[in-house]
Amino acid sequence: MSSNQPPLSAKLDGLQSSAIRDLLKLTSRAEIISLAGGLPDAALMPRERIAEAAEHALGDAAVLQYTESPGWAPLRAVLVERESRQLGRAVALDEVFVTHGSQQALSLLAEVLLDPGALVVVEDPAYVGALQVFRAAGARIVAVPLDAEGMRVDVLRTMLAGGERPAVVHTVSNFHNPGGVTMSPRRRAELAELADAHGFWVIEDDPYGELWFDSPAPAPVATYSRNVIRLSSASKIIAPTLRVGWMIAPDGVCRAVELLKQGADLCGSALTQQITAELLADDSWFPAHLDTVRATYRTRAEALVRAVRTTFGDRLTCTDASGGMFVWASFTDGTDTAALLPHALEQGVAYVPGAAFAVDTAYPHSMRMCFTTSDAQTLEQAVERLARAHAAGQRANSAHSIQS
Ligand code: PMP
Question: What does DSSP say about strands 33-34 and 349-350: parallel, antiparallel, or unpaired?
């Protein structure tokens, strides 16, 4: 493994906010079954355990104080242990940086790694929150498509051979949002090899890796190269309100992020970081909690995929959900998912049309469906509603073509 470490950006001041909140507007009407939001299930968030840990933390007045910008040291120590296990090497404390959710890590990294006009390679379809950050940073964005094995690293290789020089390649390596797929071990090794050979950063954005159903996700891309900055988060495994994410990156990157974090918010919350540390380190509770979340999401994912396949047959292809929170489904009969959405809302079901995640490809026939917040029966009902909407859409289309 060579270490051809890429340079940092000269532009380290100025921050922009980013969000994927627009998607949540669709979920607001009570009668709608929403597969749109992309939220973890609040009913599975451990309120009592959080309250208990909060009470422990509040026993010491220091928890109300400002904390260190890279994060509350005992949480970082817990993360060192966790990530050393994940990465199969001794991760140093200086490589661990706690952020206000992994979204803040993306935002700060864009400042640290990108000069205006720098090339960022993303996956197509892409995580909207990352696109927003990279666009706000003035990056030139080029997309590489996904297939069942994740990012098409061969397409990236061709781009590199053609002379493109990315500063950053962003990947959601596990249980992709929105694509539902996981990058294969072979592609991970290839991506890392390219990062070393060409001297670019890989941001491995991994909030879903722990939410596997049948077998654990493959070893992180970060196990193959030190040019990989790995992001994880407590949002999907404990609760988003903690706003605890973390980054594993070379010391130099962490120190640059630290400079910017001081300007952004001085530091995170010692209270939620202490709560997170206690929960993550509780071996008699955390693994069982995670098992419950996995098993619940697995049942829901299976119900949704089964209902889609029995209801639509080969008119709607759908990824196998092997973890995470999403499936990506594509109509093969020409149905336009943006045009279908008003019919779907009328029938009481919401999803996000593929166009919302599009970079270079339009994805007019695709959609993202989130299976986490409804039980199996409700998901089956959602698919029935979708079928009624699909039929209504087809009737409307044929009426339109008779008239015109
Ligand atoms: N990365 C990806 C791929 C995501 O899907 C999300 C949340 N939807 C985030 C990062 C940000 O999560 P958080 O800031 O809550 O850790």
Answer: parallel
